[in-house]
């Protein structure tokens, strides 16, 4: 019979096949190799950095933070797919999941994972920050009214952004737009 293998959680964290980090108040305390590689940084250089360095714009960082708080308060965890930015400025789709270690402090200590989904969903059109936000909601299957409530926009403004996205992606219908956003061609 084999002796039990000693589990080294620090090694598991560092070499996990998915990007991971520990954060406090949206500042990365410790990141693993997969995360730094995914975003194009050297090992350890993200530690001590605000999550804002991973977002295309400061506005997107702030809006996402405001959106996360009520969901984390209700569930203790958050998950979405959004466009993020690598260190070289390249934009890519990323699946992000986080869990608060203290449900009473949703943006306090937490564990976050990041998965690069750009192979399935390439960023193929030049989008404004608001269009990226609307696109992320459309991919989640949200209606214009639902998006309007979450973004404090009018449904008409959301429809205007959806129409711009349809033109940019050459989509004739909303369904075709969503398929193109997720990287599936018809």
What does this molecule look like?
It comes from Pseudoduganella umbonata. InterPro entries: PAS (IPR000014), PAS-like_dom_sf (IPR035965), Sig_transdc_resp-reg_C-effctor (IPR016032), Tscrpt_reg_LuxR_C (IPR000792), WH-like_DNA-bd_sf (IPR036388). Pfam families: GerE, PAS_9. Residues 120-185 form the HTH luxR-type domain. One of its GO terms (molecular function) is DNA binding. The structure is a single chain. With 186 residues, the protein is of the alpha+beta class. The protein folds into two domains: 19-116, PAS domain (Beta-Lactamase, 2-Layer Sandwich), CATH 3.30.450; 129-181, Arc Repressor Mutant, subunit A. Helix content is 40%, strand content 20%. The protein is built from seven helices and five strands. It has helices at 9-15, 33-39, 58-75, 129-139, 144-151, 155-169, 174-181; strands at 19-24, 27-31, 77-85, 91-100, 110-116. A hairpin with a 2-residue loop joins β1 and β2 (27-31). α4 (129-139) packs across α6 and α6 (155-169) crosses α7. The protein is globular, with a radius of gyration of 18 Å. The protein starts with 8 loop residues before the first helix and ends in a 5-residue tail after the last helix. The relative contact order is 0.11.
